[in-house]
Amino acid sequence: MEIGIDSFAAILPDPATGKLPAPTDRMADLIEEVVVADRVGLDVFGIGEHHRGEFLDSAPTVILAAAAARTSRIRLTSAVTVLSAADPVRVFQEFATLDLISKGRAEVVVGRGSFVEAYPLFGLDTRDYDELFAEKLDLFLKLGQATHITWEGRFRPALEGQGVFPRPHQQLLPLWIGVGGTPQSFARAGSLGLPLMIAIIGGSFDRFRPLVDLYREAGKRAGHSPEALKVGVHAMGFVGETSAAAKDAFFPGWAHLTTKIGRERGWSPPTRQQFEGMTGAEGAFLIGDPKTVAAKMLQASETLGGVSRITFQMSTASLDTAAMKTSIELLGTEVAPIVRAAR
Question: Could you tell me the pTM of the whole model?
């Protein structure tokens, strides 16, 4: 199982003063997090894409390129690229360039986005939410297969054999489909034979098993080998010396962001009791001491019928930069060896 971290470059106010850190300081801390993850042997680091004031990740490939220049082994990916609201040609060029800078360590996770701010920002209609993604994914896949293509669609000017440069260092950029809980998204990824990255940010892992089975069955019907149908999980996660320390480091930022976003979506404010439930045996948060987290990762993989990659969404713990670095070190030096030895 590959183990990694996803960050949304969250910028959170100090609970005592209400003041935000300087964006330059937060970005420097984020790059240092990637460096630490590389040093302790983690497999992958992902940067999300949002167009909101709480996050600094609207240009993820720029952040990943900065991280590529300071790392040597860790794979660098999006988490996720909102392909529906982007030009697939430009996205391909950006990640091909990242692949050259990193000497073949770039990957792409594409999706429709759980936040919709990108659509009006770039002049797109959310009523075309699914059609946009299907068409742009088709083009992106073709760009990976040939330098010069002829293509026509509804949402972008046609291509008539123009060359798309640069080409990546890898023969084919690794591409994952990022999904939430929509059955059609799981089935589409399976039919295309593309790896699946599931965002499980609440509830329990077992409620996603029917959707994973749907993905694998769709892939089988389309003639894809089981090896091609990889399943990854993106989950809330944090590691501390003790489970209490991990929870205390993660909760304040999580509660702040969940309250703010929940207010926009009509959710009730989160409570510490709810948080404790999500970190318990049945919940989907991978938060605790190294042995607890490792055991829960292995259980999640078994529940979902085998998981190829788990990435920890740690951004909401960024209030405590020392705890962030400690968590990354523990994930690489204590959690990863337990999980890898058990596979």
Answer: 0.96
Q: With left for phi above 0 and alpha for psi between -120 and 50, is residue 161 left, alpha or beta? A: left
How far apart, in whole angstroms, are the C-alpha atoms of residue 76 and residue 296?
25
CB 270 within 8 A of CB 262: yes
Backbone angles phi, psi at 279, to 5 degrees: -90, -5
CA 321 centroid distance within chain:
20
**Cα 132 to chain centroid, rounded:** 20
Check whether 321 has a pLDDT greater than 90.
no
Measured CA to CA, the distance from residue 66 to residue 325 in angstroms comes to 18
Rounded Cα–Cα distance for residues 180 and 198 (Å): 6
Residue-wise pLDDT tens digits, 138-173: 999 999 999 999 999 999 999 999 999 999 999 999
The β-bridge partners of 162 are: none
Q: What's the pLDDT tens digit per position in 114-142?
A: 889 999 999 999 999 999 999 999 999 99
pLDDT of 276 reads: 96
Region of 222 please: left (phi>0), alpha (psi -120 to 50) or beta: alpha
DSSP assignment of 253-313 equals: HHHHHHHHHHHHHTPPPP-HHHHHHHHSTTSS-EEESHHHHHHHHHHHHHHTT--SEEEEE
Instruction: Determine the 3-state secondary structure of 141 from DSSP.
Output: helix
Query: Taking CA 186 as the corner, what is the angle to CA 181 and CA 187, rounded to the nearest 5 degrees?
Result: 135
Q: Among 250, 208, 211, 228, which Cα is nearest to 308's?
A: 228
Q: Which residue blocks in the chain are alpha helix, DSSP H?
A: 23-39, 60-68, 88-101, 118-121, 129-145, 183-192, 209-221, 243-265, 272-279, 290-303, 321-330, 336-342
Q: What is the pLDDT of residue 8?
A: 95
Give the pLDDT confidence score for residue 175 in this predicted structure: 98
Relative to beta strand 159-163, strand 148-151 is: antiparallel
Number of Cβ within 10 Å of residue 59's Cβ equals 12
The rounded distance, in Å, linking the Cα atoms of 55 and 31 is: 15
| Tokens matching residue 260 | 């703010």
